[in-house]
Design brief:
signal, single chain, 14% helix, 2 helices, 5-stranded antiparallel β-sheet, mainly beta
Length: 207
């Protein structure tokens, strides 16, 4: 009987230890500020990162570049995932983790009046170098279908839990609808993004 109780105690300890270990690896996010949309007349966004003055520049060919403020260093470039930059715009905002505090940039590219998605990136520095932590390829590995029509929206800390939720949705015309204002939206994918402290990289899970 004593041996049975010992086994039960060890089993319960393992069950309760596993979730706490898993959650301890994840870092939540703070509520971010508004995005800046680079398109048409607004083509430069000045920022600072890691005590360096930087800028995002939207070129006439639709390519977005991240470079030092003085133009001496060209760090990263971004272009439409669907091989065309016609009418493309980029929404850019800083996002922050909590405990530890880290800073990244989220970039969402879309085009047209209905904001069809054509790119998604989360970038930051790793070991002093600019890297892309999350891209459309990362989302595709979790079920996103880049070749189809989608909008991407993200919500960080909306429910005060620190969760980072990415939602993909598509629009459709319900039966009998004839006009654009009658269109509806359906969610086709929801993902949770998180900072994995063990991996020192972004993790993604499907909801």
């Amino acid at each position: 009987m004593k041996k049975l109780l010992t086994v039960c105690f060890l089993l319960m300890a393992c069950i309760f230890a596993i979730p706490s270990t898993s959650s301890a690896q994840e870092t939540g996010f703070l509520t971010p500020g508004e995005s800046t949309f680079l398109y048409m007349d607004t083509r430069v966004l000045n920022e600072t990162y890691d005590n360096e003055a930087i800028k995002f520049v939207l070129q006439r060919d639709g390519v977005l570049r991240l470079m030092s403020r003085n133009g001496a260093h060209d760090y990263l470039s971004f272009t439409g995932y669907d091989d065309t930059n016609a009418g493309i715009g980029y929404k850019i905002r800083k996002i922050y983790t909590m405990f530890p505090s880290m800073q990244f940039f989220e970039i969402i590219a879309d085009r047209g009046a209905h904001a069809k998605n054509c790119g998604y990136w989360i970038i930051g520095k790793k070991d002093g170098q600019w890297v892309t932590y999350v891209s459309i390829d990362s989302l595709a590995a979790m079920g996103y279908t880049p070749g189809e029509w989608h909008q991407i929206n993200t919500a960080l800390n909306n429910d005060a839990t620190g969760r980072f939720i990415l939602t993909s949705r598509h629009e459709y015309m319900p039966p009998g609808a004839q006009y654009g204002y009658q269109r509806r939206f359906a969610i086709d994918l929801q993902l949770q993004l998180f900072w994995d402290q063990n991996a020192q990289w972004f993790g993604i899970r499907r909801l």
